[in-house]
Request: fold
Amino acid sequence: MHRVKKILNRRSLACAPRGVPWACVVALSTLLSACQPAVLDPIGPIGSAEKTILINSLAIMLAVVVPTIVATLGMAWWFRASNKRAHRRPEWAFSGRIELVVWAVPLMVILLLGGVTWIGAHQLDPARPIESELPVLNIQVVSLDWKWLFIYPDQRVATVNQLIVPVSVPLHFSLTSASVMNTFFIPQLGSMIYTMNGMTTQLNLQADQVGTVRGISGHYSGEGFSDMHFPVHIVPPAAFARWVDTTARGTEPVLDDAHYAALAKQGVPLAPSAYRSVAGGLYQRIATQAMPPASGPAPGAAGAMQQPLLAH
Reply:
C-alpha cells in the first residue's frame, strides 16, 4: 500500500507544472470553475458605466499602492546591514520633500476619487431615466419570503421568480418589500438597490443583448435567502409581446388578494410561475401596507423550505 501511494504521488506531481505545488493547481482550478460573468461582464449602459468607475478607481488606487510597495522594498534593500553607504541619522527630524510627498499624494488621490464618485453618483442616479427613443417598460417588484414578485402594470400580467424583458428597451423598476428589508441586484445590468417595507425605491436599467442573466438577492433575509434568485430572460420586443399575449390568454391564475395572501406566506416555489391578470392597485396596497404580509409558512407545509406555494 505504501508503494502504491508513492506511485500515485509521483504521477500527480508529474501532471502539475514544474515549480507549482499540486495543491495550488487544484485550488486555482476550483476557483476558476466557480467564476461567472457578473459586474465585469456588463450587457447594459448602467453596468458598463459602473465597470468603468470600478476600473478607474482601481487604477487611481494602484497609482499609490504600487509605488508604496516599490519604495518599501527599496528602503529595505538600501538600508540593509551590509550596505556601508547607508547612513543612520538619529538626529534627523524634518524633511520638506518627504512631507510634500506624504501629504500631496493622498490629497491627489482623494480629489481624483472624489471627482469620480461625484460625477458617477449624479450620472448613475438609480431614479434617473435612461435616454431612449423607445417607450419605457414599467415593472413593479415586491420582495417576499423568499421569492420575487414582478408585476407588469401596463401589460396587467405578473411573474414569480422570473423576469422577462425586451432588449434595448429602458426598464423602470418600482420596488418595495412585503416583508423584511432586501436588495434587488442583476449584476450584469448594474445598480443593486434596497427594497423596504412601506417604502418604494426607483431603479432604471437597460439590457442591450439577447440572452439570460442571473438576478439575485444581496441581503440576508432568513433561511430561504439562498433560493432568492431568478433568471432574467432578455428577448426581442416581438417575442416579449407574444409572451405577454400568451400569458394573458393562458390558464394561469389571476393575482387577486386571495392568491397574493397565499404567495406572501413564507416558502420557496420550486419553479418560476406567472399570472394572467393582476388585481388593480395591488402594488400600491402592498407598498402602503394596506395588505400586511402573512408571517407563517404556507398552509400544509411540513417546512417552509420543502413545500412549493405554486405547483403549476
